[in-house]
Amino acid sequence: MIPSPKIYVAGHRGMVGSAIVRHLLAQGQPAERIVGRTHAELDLTDQSAVRGFFTQEKPDQVYLAAAKVGGIHANNTYPAQFIYENLMIEANIIDAAFRNGVRKLLFLGSSCIYPKLAAQPMCEEALLTGTLEATNEPYAIAKIAGIKLCESYNRQYGESYGIDYRSVMPTNLYGPGDNYHPENSHVIPALIRRFHEAKLGRAPSVAIWGTGTPRREFLYVDDMAAASVHVMNLPADIYHQHTRPMQSHINVGYGEDVTIAELARSVAEVVGYEGEITFDPSKPDGTSRKLMDSSRLNALGWRAQMGLEVGLKNAYRDFLQNCAAHP
Questions:
Q1: Which stretches in the chain have pLDDT values below 70?
Q2: Which of 49, 55, 130, 176 could form a disulfide linkage to 115, CB 3.0–4.6 angstroms apart?
Q3: Is the distance from CB of 169 to CB of 184 less than 8 angstroms?
Q4: 244 is in an annotated binding site
């Protein structure tokens, strides 16, 4: 019998990494063949430590889901950390993977790689065709570098070493395992926390950053995990029929978007907050619209399954179970 591949999930305790582990286990991957390390056990910004880990473990596949992430406030406040840590993590892992014979690697990026004024929905060819959104430019540049690392290793070593490193670019993710920090979280967990606290405190109103008019697309994290495993396991000839020559990245989206105002009302309803929702136009909106063109991945046999209404209920349940009692 052919043994199951040894799979390293970088960031296995994060929202996306833990969802990938859940999906792999559900598909029958033996738990003992899934490798993970906490930050305390392995600092991914330390090149020597990462190389030592790969030399010891020798994984067959790598899901690179580890990253420093956050919302508009966090990106604006810590730009140096966002670009430095993400560059170091991806460079160390991708190079160490190559040096230790890993042929299949999946890098997880972000929709913020595309220009601020990219045509909607955003297709893969929009990469590097315009100026990035200023509020998260350092993070976006780091993620673009990760895509180009994969493409460059494929270009230089793909044919001679048989490597095929791919990248998936998800839209805004949410769901179990999210970060509900009051300042550094993304929009859905931030809204869940604010409306929950407003409900408990019987606040008459909640003010939301920006005008409420920007449109955003949201993907449930378990759908993202399923897409990641699907892309990883696609045969090379089939995958590359749907990408341009030497391209490593493909979009992963839900296919529909909503305004921030619509989202806020939906979250308030799920949480049970009945007060007034106001908007603060003095705060930044970010990009006016970010909708992914996921037609290529759809053509490769994958579509999102979880609708926003049910997904928000699941996310709030996760918040109540894991965060509400431990702010």
A1: 1-2, 184, 245-246, 324-327
A2: 130
A3: no
A4: no
240 is in an annotated binding site: no
Q: Do the strands 218-220 and 34-35 form a parallel or antiparallel pair, or are they unpaired?
A: unpaired
| Side chain identity at residue 97, one-letter code | A
What is the Cα–Cα distance from 132 to 288, expressed in whole angstroms? 13
92 labeled part of a ligand binding site:
no
Specify the amino acid at residue 180.
Y
Residue 276 backbone dihedrals phi, psi, to 5 degrees? -80, 145
Q: Which two tokens stand for residue 242?
A: 């749907």
CATH code that applies to domain 7-174+217-255+290-306: 3.40.50.720
What Cα–Cα distance (Å) separates residue 160 from each residue in 60, 95, 135?
17, 16, 40
Secondary structure (3-state) at 104:
strand
Q: What is the pLDDT of residues 5-53, one digit of tens each?
A: 999 999 999 999 999 999 999 999 999 999 999 999 999 999 999 999 9
Which among 139, 174, 220, 316 is annotated as catalytic? 139
Rounded Cα gap, residues 72 and 112, in angstroms: 11
Q: Domain residues of the chain, as ranges?
A: 7-174+217-255+290-306
114 a catalytic residue = no
Contact 142, 237 (CB under 8 A): no
CB within 8 Å of 216: residues ≥ 6 apart: 171, 172, 187, 257, 258, 259, 260, 263, 289, 290
154 is in an annotated binding site: no
